[in-house]
Description:
Blueprint: H1 5-23, E1 28-31, H2 40-43, E2 48-50, E3 57-60, H3 68-77, H4 103-112, H5 114-130, H6 136-139, H7 150-153, H8 158-164, E4 171-179, E5 184-189, H9 196-203, E6 208-212, E7 215-220, E8 223-228, E9 234-239, H10 243-262, H11 268-272, E10 278-281, E11 284-287, H12 297-300, H13 303-307, E12 309-313
Parallel strand pairs: 1-3, 4-12
Antiparallel strand pairs: 2-3, 4-5, 5-9, 6-7, 7-8, 8-9, 10-11
The structure holds iron/sulfur cluster (2 copies).
One iron/sulfur cluster (SF4) binds at residues 205, 273, 275, 277-278, 287, 292-298.
Amino acid sequence: RDYRWCCKVIKLAPIAKVIKEKFGNSTVLSIVGQRRYESLARARSPRVWRNRWIPNVIVTSPILDWTALEVWIYLLMNKVRVNSLYLKGFDRLGCWLCPASELAELELVERNHPEMWNTWSEYLRKWSEERKLPKEWMNYGLWRWLSIPGDVRRLLDRKVLEGLERDDRGRGLVVSIEGRTPEILARVEVSKPIDTKALVEHLKPLGSVRIEGESIKVENEFGRVTFYKAPNLSIAVEYYHSYEDGIKLLENVLKALLRSLNCVLCEFCSIFCPNSAIKIHDNGISVNENLCTHCLKCLESCPVVEYLTILISGTRSP
Length: 318
Ligand code: SF4
Ligand code: SF4
């Protein structure tokens, strides 16, 4: 899967926000010009679908079965003005550094707009040098994926694949479970300082939150969680029913921690919240506990949770 977090944060979140402001909770029909011949994923697309990132919208494409030739005949017959980049060899236009681009399209960008391409290329070069990534990461455009798809992996030798593991873009949290009974004890590696105020806001959707001295406690019907920040971050989960419930609760508090460390203020959580309990501020989010019903839609709709991984080791049952 290509690494298109940007599509969600820069394109779909603003669209979803405008639709919510204009139409509230009504169902909206969106008509797009998507075609089956554009990609394998689009070839499998049904005639009518929903986009999981835009609530209450039904999408359809009347030209789903059109070929490129039919599109061009239509445009020429109707004397429609077209973007001049189509005449320079591009057949799909979007952001010029889109990770969904083919290598040939990126070469066209470099040829037509070297000044733009050089800025991006310099940024990629610095990133790859800092992490000592193999030269293939840039030469084959491997930066387009967070995890390299199977058909591309098959073309790379083992050494290159091992080198790619140093690419830490998708690494969120590394967690090891050290105690399992009577409570789960997890040690968590975090690469940034924890902002207690932000973490408390992100934990509120999970249950009631309180600060006791240096620790933060969250409680709901499945158990009680305590964050100990010193000397290293550890999380204790006292589960009320089953170990599996405890692990699920731990996963959710880890997602909340991940969001608090990496929130990009995209607003998806506030758009998806059915109770308007989330406000977005310049420096983070706030959650109104009186309105929150703990549905967790905010957690499920957050691109930070979707794109950053939480590696947990030692989850086997006690
Ligand atoms: S917490 Fe909300 S605003 Fe922040 S990245 Fe996630 S969805 Fe976007
Ligand atoms: S989406 Fe659900 S859990 Fe999140 S703040 Fe809104 S009501 Fe609470």
